[in-house]
Amino acid sequence: MATLKIPHPVPSAVEDAENLMKAFHGWGTDEKAVISILAHRDADQRKQIMVAYEELYKENLIKRLESEISGHFERAMYRWMFDPIEREVIFANVALKKSVDWIVIIELSCINSPDELLVIKKMYQNRYKLSLEEDVAFHTSGDFRKLLVGLVSTYRYRGEEINASLAQAEAKILHNLIKQKTFDHDEVIRILCTRSKAQLNATFNCYKDEQGTSITKSLSSASSSEFVSALRTAIRCIISPEKYYEKLLRRALNKGGIDEDSLTRVIIMRAEKDLQVIKELYQKRANMTLDHAVSKEASGDYKKFLLALIGN
Amino acid sequence: MATLKIPHPVPSAVEDAENLMKAFHGWGTDEKAVISILAHRDADQRKQIMVAYEELYKENLIKRLESEISGHFERAMYRWMFDPIEREVIFANVALKKSVDWIVIIELSCINSPDELLVIKKMYQNRYKLSLEEDVAFHTSGDFRKLLVGLVSTYRYRGEEINASLAQAEAKILHNLIKQKTFDHDEVIRILCTRSKAQLNATFNCYKDEQGTSITKSLSSASSSEFVSALRTAIRCIISPEKYYEKLLRRALNKGGIDEDSLTRVIIMRAEKDLQVIKELYQKRANMTLDHAVSKEASGDYKKFLLALIGN
């Protein structure tokens, strides 16, 4: 369930564009007005506002926003204005520049459904004139390449059927390899990168039943290497995107100084999808509402924008 | 260009089904009549005939054919009767049983376009309730796994744009690795499995220009291992499916005793697509027509069936 709140009736795209222009005019920007419009429109409506704004004023709304607002607020608004698939495509491409940000690639490949990933890959090709696979492979090496290329390449089986004896056998393979600390073994990569999400969840459940501890806990007590951390991220995204995001929020808000990038990413990417579920999980685990935590840790227009997106 | 010849006007599916039943009745089967119908109908028409036959006689046409005809003719007819995509799906699955027939997997992944491969993968999932990727990964190991999983997984870029300096750089990487005989190097797998076909063709052209010999010739003089043979097969399928098939036909017809499996596979799979081009290439290289070679090497109803499919 989404947290995004859209007024009924919603103003026309032309009205919204005109009101945005009013907010930009005069002494300073009326950030409150900007938030009251853009934080309460869905992706389609935002797209229509951008088109209407461009037609009315012959300028690009995103560029205008960049010149009107700044800091964390600007960066969050910039992300928010993209079409959700385009946003994933662009941030995957950014993640592959310089030192590869593997978290973005793992989230993209393990949280999206096989068909959503396919749509992202098609748009990636249209935009960059090469495949996501070749870009990931080109910018990585060694174990990370094996893992990341495997994760983005496979068109996983989409069905819910599972093979229970296979789950048991593969849970045993994973346990033995973790025990031997051969995390980069071809079999780890094969299982994680090719099995369906339903089958992997069955395997991870078998692992927990037989070993009395979860595979992610086994991994974290076996090693603190970056590669193992990547394996754990992939597994957590496959088991439950909502729990994964909830934990990311707790960490982002719990650093004595927020992790702006993660906080923005989770809220922007999930506000139109399942942020309500993530909020409820957060409240249980953190013993406070997400609204309260954001109010406490964030500030200024950035805070107001995030609070609007999380349904405050 | 296809070699399949369809009469105009084509009889209705019901007439065809009735004439097939007539051919099955009486003393022995009238194979000539069976060939005159089924070797001159396209995939859609064959499907309609199967439906009409089932409705009229409450029996499966393919099963009836299996009981009426035998040997090479039966095996070729069995393959022919499938829908072309279903045929690739079923034979990929067969190729993964017991000792993996890597040639079928390489042809499937390197000859089909990225979008055709995707359709095959979707049908594979619907039919077998798992992904082609996980089946290939499960049944292979070591270098073959790396290569075959890479080839079936990637959704290659479909565009024709190439990056000339990248082609030069990657041709050099490939040359150095072949010189060092490290054919299983991650970079060989990366380049071959992730780059677009257009980009790979540019890379192979650079290789030839700089080294004065083709990459496939370099590979075959460097090693005769099965893995290098698989690399060469993939490269040849990417460079030119038609030339690849033409050579396969020459080998299949040149063994002093035909290679029935390859001969049938090429003719059945290409008769509705590009067998005319392959035939013309064959005539140039073998100094005889494909019709003549098939007449000389094959026999009986099998020969008649193949000759009908190649447009004799």
From TrEMBL, chains A, B:
Keyword DNA repair: no
Annotated keywords: Annexin, Calcium, Calcium/phospholipid-binding, Metal-binding, Repeat
UniProt xrefs under SMART domains: ANX (SM00335)
Record bears the keyword tRNA processing: no
GO cellular-component term (any): cytoplasm
Name of the protein: Annexin-like protein RJ4
Binding residues for Ca(2+) 2: 255, 257, 297
Underlying gene: LOC120273915
Short name of one Pfam family: Annexin
GO MF term list: calcium ion binding; calcium-dependent phospholipid binding; phosphatidylserine binding
Lineage of the organism: Eukaryota, Viridiplantae, Streptophyta, Embryophyta, Tracheophyta
Signal peptide: none
Chain positions recorded as Ca(2+) 1 binding sites: 24, 26, 28, 68
InterPro entries: Annexin, Annexin_repeat, Annexin_sf, AnnexinD_plant
Biological process terms in GO annotation: response to cold; response to heat; response to salt stress; response to water deprivation
